[in-house]
TrEMBL record:
PANTHER family associated with the record: MAGNESIUM TRANSPORTER NIPA3-RELATED, PTHR12570
Official protein name in the record: Probable magnesium transporter
SUBUNIT field: Homodimer.
The UniProt record lists the keyword Transport: yes
Length: 349
């Protein structure tokens, strides 16, 4: 027993006070963000009942108070998330978004009447196990003394190449795929949000570091690099908000949340590894353990996705897409449109 306790103490020696602060902030962020998905979805439902739906290009939700409550809740969560990135590496902070999946899926089951299969609960549990595995083996935060150091990392050839690929992919999705497939393929909207999100997180982390250094007495606001990162964040966040609203209004919340989480986390970790070279400070064993944890998260989200798909497919009364108009009470059973199913649609008519 004493040996076991000692081994646990040894495992926690690698977690710095900054990492613990980032962990607490990230957990708080997930709670707020998970709840905001549901509140915003209810606001989108109400707005869509009396105007043009967000999924069809409308913006009537901007006049819906419930949507703004959800937006404020999300902003609070994002602020906590913003602060977390200033203290801990992205590999630690980002995977904790799994908690927001669980909160969102459970609330969707209770409030929005979007059924959560028993195996979906198991999927949520796998997300938690995978996240804990990654947290316990996360690298220490890189020591940075100026925002100029972050700018130098962002302008290295490897990250510039990654950023160029992301921007090119986003433009291709927006102009070539959104018009034809945005309403029927969930990966289009989510792909845009996730790709843009990986760049926004790197910029958010840069701004967080700049603010932390400024508050400690080293003013970073005098550097143009700080404001350049700020402009990138504003552009990316507005793009993410627009296409995430479209995804939430068109597809099932219990599916949007996990798929968005998987893609966003994968791309963010990749961007962080390229830009901040997180794995350079870790042993092969730690890296492999982190990857095992991430595969566990992927397995959980895939299970949540497939069991929800199976549950909806088993009911002939469930539509493939969210109807253009909701019922009087604002609720309806929602299907999961992951691909075109023309035969089923024609049969329903």
């Amino acid at each position: 027993m004493a040996t076991t306790v000692a081994s646990w103490r040894d495992s926690y020696k690698g977690m710095s006070s900054d990492n613990i602060k980032g962990l607490v902030l990230a957990l708080s962020s997930s709670v707020f963000i998970g709840a905001s998905f549901i509140v915003k979805k209810k606001g989108l439902k109400k707005a869509g009942a009396s105007g043009v739906r967000a999924g069809s290009g409308g913006y009537s939700y901007l006049y819906e108070p419930l949507w703004w409550i959800g937006m404020i809740t999300m902003i609070v969560g994002e602020i906590a998330n913003f602060a977390a990135y200033a203290f801990a590496p992205a590999i630690l902070v980002t995977p904790l978004g799994a908690l927001s999946i669980i909160i969102s899926a459970v609330l969707a089951h209770i409030i929005l009447r979007e059924r959560l299969h028993i195996f979906g609960v198991l999927g949520c549990a796998l997300c938690v196990v995978g996240s804990i595995t990654i947290v316990l083996h996360a690298p220490q935060e890189r020591e940075i003394e100026s925002v100029i150091e972050v700018w130098d990392l962002a302008t290295e050839p490897a990250f510039l190449f990654y950023a160029a690929l992301v921007i090119a992919a986003v433009f291709v999705l927006i102009f070539n795929f959104v018009p034809d497939y945005g309403q029927t393929h969930i990966m289009v909207y989510i792909g845009i949000c996730s790709l843009v999100g990986s760049l926004s997180v790197m910029s958010v982390k840069a701004i967080g570091i700049a603010l932390k250094l400024t508050l400690s007495g080293m003013n970073q606001l005098i550097y143009p690099q700080t404001w350049a990162f700020t402009m990138v964040v504003i552009t990316c966040v507005l793009t993410q908000m627009n296409y995430l609203n479209k995804a939430l209004d068109t597809f099932n919340t219990a599916v949007v949340s996990p798929i968005y989480y998987v893609m966003f986390t994968s791309l963010t970790i990749l961007a962080s590894v390229i830009m901040f070279k997180d794995w350079d400070r870790q042993s092969p064993t730690q890296i492999v353990t982190e990857m095992c944890g991430f595969v566990t998260i992927l397995s959980g989200t895939f299970l949540l996705h497939k069991t929800k798909d199976m549950a909806d497919a088993g009911s002939a009364a469930l539509p493939i897409r969210i109807p253009k108009h909701s019922d009087d009470d604002g609720f309806e059973n929602e299907g999961i449109p992951l691909k075109r199913q023309d035969a089923m649609r024609s049969a329903s008519h």
